[in-house]
Amino acid sequence: MKKQDIILHSEEMDEMIVASPRYIVRWGETVIGLVLFILIIGCFLFKYPDTITCRVTVATQHPAVWIVSQATGRIKDLLCHDGEEVCPGKIIAVIDNSAKTKDVLYVEKELYKSMWGIKFELKNENLELGELQSSYADFVSSLSDYRQFLENNLYLQKINAGKEQQQVYVALIKNMQRQAFITHEQNLLSKNDFKSDEILYQKGLLAKTEYTKAKIEQLGNSLSAEQNKSSILNSQLQVTQIANDIIELKMQFRQDSLKVSNNLKAAYNKLQTDIRQWRNTYAIVCPIYGKLAFGKYWALNQNITAGDKVFSVIPTNSAQQVIAKATVNVVGAGKIHDGQIVNIKLDDYPYMEYGYLIGYVCRISQIPEDENYVATIGIKSPRVTSYHKHINTQGEHSGTAEILTDERSLGERIIAPIFYLFKHNF
Q1: Distance CA 143, CA 137 (A)
Q2: Cβ atoms of 117 and 136 closer than 8 Å
Q3: Helix, strand, coil % over all residues of the chain, rounded to 5
Q4: Contacts 24+ apart (CB under 8 A), 255-259
C-alpha cells in the first residue's frame, strides 16, 4: 500500500476532535460571565479610602529644644555631660573668651547674695574677668565707698552729739527757770522792803545812806532777774540752733547716703548687664528643664560657628502627650477633616519591620503658609506600633503620614474621569 493512500482518521473522528461539546461552551460562558458580573458588582460595592501622603514630625507636646550658639570660637569649658539632667539658666559650655569662667561665675553668685551686692565678698586675689574687668572695678570702688560711708558714720555721730548737747541745754533751761522763779520772788520782796524804806526816808525817819543802800540792793535784784531771763532766752536760742544743725546734718546725711547708694546701684546694674551680655555671647545656656543631648559637639577645643545648633534639651516629663505635626500641600487638603485615621511611618523605624503608628486628625490650620497647611495629629498609642512593638518616641522624629480620607469604590474611580470628560466635552 502506498504511503499517500493511508487514511489516519475518518470524517466522524475529525468531527469529534475539532468540534467542542456544546454544554462545555455554555458552562464556560456562564462562569466567565458570572465572574465578570461579580467583579463589576464588587467594583461598586467594595470601597477603600483615598490617601494623602505628607511629611510629618512626631514629638512630645513640649518638643526638644535646640540651643544655638551666638558666637564663633572653640569650646573653652564644658560644664555638663551628655545625658545630664539640666535646669533653666544652667551653663552647659563656654566659648573661648578673655575671662575665666569660674571668676565670672563667682562674681555672678556673689552679686545675687544680697540687694545691690552689699554683702559681696571681695577676694584678695585678682580676678580675670576680661571684658567685665572695667565694670567690676567700678562696682568694687562704689561698694568700698558705700561700706566706708556706713562704717565711719560721721553724720550720725554728729547728730547724736547734737541731740546730747540739746538735752543738756534743755536741762540747763529748766534749772535756770527755777532760779529765775526764786530770783523773781526775791525781787518782789526787795521791792516791798524798798518801798517801806522809801516811805521812812520821805518822813525823815531813815538816813540817806541807808536809803541809797536799799535802792542799790533793790536795783541789783532787778538786774539779776533780768539777767536770768536773758540766760534762759540764750539757752533756748542755742537749743533752736542745735535743732537746725541736726536737721541740716540729716539732710546732708540723706544726700550723701543717696549719692553713694545710687553710685553703688548704677555700678551693680552695669556689672549685671555686662554679665548678662557675656552669658548671651559666650555661654551656652540651658533654656528648660530636661535631659541634655550632645550632637556633633561633645569635647573641648571643638570649633563652633555662630548660628550652629550645638546641643539639645529633651523634656523629661513622661506624662507629656505625644503629637504629630504634618505639612499638607494645598492640593487635596480640602478632603481632610477632624477624626480621620492617619498611618505614620517613622524614618527611624522601618515600617516593614516595626509597623506604623496609628493616629487621627485633631485639627488642620485654616490658612495655608507657603502653599502648605499644618495638620495636628493625635496618636493613640505613641510607644506601641501596629506590630505591637515598643519604640521610643522621646525627642523628635520625622516620617511619612498617610491620611485616610473619604472612601470610594473602584467603579466610582473609573466612572469619575469618564463623567468629567463627557461633561466638559459634550
Answers
A1: 10
A2: no
A3: 50, 20, 25
A4: 256/149, 256/155, 257/149
Q: What residues pair up with 91 in beta bridges, in sequence order?
A: 285
User: What is the strand order of the sheet 290-294 is part of?
Assistant: 65-68, 309-314, 290-294, 85-86
How long, in residues, is the chain?
426
Q: Quickly list H helices, 95-207.
A: 101-111, 133-152, 154-202
**∠ CA 50-54-56, rounded to 5°:** 130
160-to-81, 172, 246, 274 alpha-carbon distances in Å: 60, 18, 9, 42
**Dist CA 336 CA 364 (whole Å):** 8
Record the pTM. Answer: 0.63
Q: Tens digit of pLDDT per residue, the chain (426 long)?
A: 444 454 555 555 555 555 556 666 677 778 888 888 787 777 777 776 888 999 999 988 778 889 999 999 999 999 999 989 999 999 999 999 999 999 999 999 988 887 767 777 777 678 899 999 999 999 999 988 888 888 777 767 777 777 777 777 777 777 777 776 766 666 666 666 666 666 666 666 666 676 677 666 666 666 676 777 777 777 777 778 877 877 877 777 888 888 888 999 999 999 999 999 999 999 999 998 989 999 899 899 999 999 999 999 988 765 668 889 999 999 888 888 899 999 999 999 998 999 999 999 999 998 988 889 999 999 988 889 999 999 887 778 899 999 988 877 766 767 767 776 777 666
